[in-house]
Amino acid sequence: MTTTTENRHALPTGYQLQDYRLISIIGHGGFGITYLAKDTKLNHEVAIKEYFPNDLAIRENDHNVHPKSHQDKENFAWGLERFLQEGQTLATFQHPNIVRVLRYFEAHNTAYIVMEYEQGQSLSSAIKNKGTATEAFLLEIVSPLLEGLQAVHEAGLLHRDIKPDNIYLRDKDHSPVLLDFGAARYAIGSRSRSVTTIVTPGYTPFEQYQTKGDQGPWTDIYALGAVLYRIISDKIPVEAPKRVNAIKLREEADPLPPATKIGRKHYSERLLRNIDWALEIAEKDRPQTVSQWAEALLPPPSPTEQAKPVKPVNRITPATTSAATTRCGSTTAT
Known about the structure:
- The structure is a single chain.
- This protein folds into 2 domains: about 100 residues, 2-Layer Sandwich (Phosphorylase Kinase, domain 1), CATH 3.30.200.20; about 180 residues, Transferase(Phosphotransferase) domain 1 (Transferase(Phosphotransferase), domain 1, Orthogonal Bundle), CATH 1.10.510.
- Helix content is about 35%, strand content about 15%.
- It has 10 helices and 11 strands.
- It has a 6-stranded antiparallel beta sheet, covered by helices on one side.
- A hairpin with a 2-residue loop joins strand 7 and strand 8.
- Helix 1 packs antiparallel against helix 4 and helix 3 runs antiparallel to helix 5.
- The C terminus is likely disordered.
């Protein structure tokens, strides 16, 4: 993972935050700042995510974070509570494809989530200028992500912001990790009715644009389907509201070309058909659970794999670490 430029709202480099000395900024957005830090007691590097919704909060000279107004105070506290709940829940996971949370704590009138840090790059970086990705590459990525996502859903959570920037590929074995769950961001956006703060155009399904949209596992499935579509087409999918407007308001064809059409020269019909299934506009028309989609999407296991004991939770084949996996590019979001 590469470091990013400095952020004027961030804590200074070298700052001692409890047991951690901040080394650099490795990510920042509208709702938080992520630091690379060194655990000074255990002598290893960690990533620390700070809750900092910059539309609602400011940092004073004493490094404490304060809401900008009384109205912001309510929304800030609402999001902070959900940020801590997210940290608490993620800390219970011991899954190789979900970001590992080591601890969480409150300080400076805000909160922090301490995560395991590993060398790697975002999927966004890996696919940039990569050329045509192989089907083997796609399956190596999606199979373990489905396992991780199913664990999340079984815990009663949704990710709500799956996109190439939030999927991390480890350098050591190219295995994927889901990052940056959107609980706090979604809580604030829903409360303030600011839809633009809680969606990622192209990856967000239509129900997330609605205040009372029916969200469930199918919401994350749409987003992961959009990630696969991005890889096979080299284009970000058409935004969900534009698709709805074209079909329902103007009675035109869906402006999103089907995966079965654009990828037929390079990918199996099975893969393409199931990408299209995940990208259905209506929630009821998509796979309703990860296991349902996985059973249709992934090739059946070989006789050797069938002979091995499997977990009853799903029928997802573990990821391989083939040397054919290609990695390249920068850390720019796509």
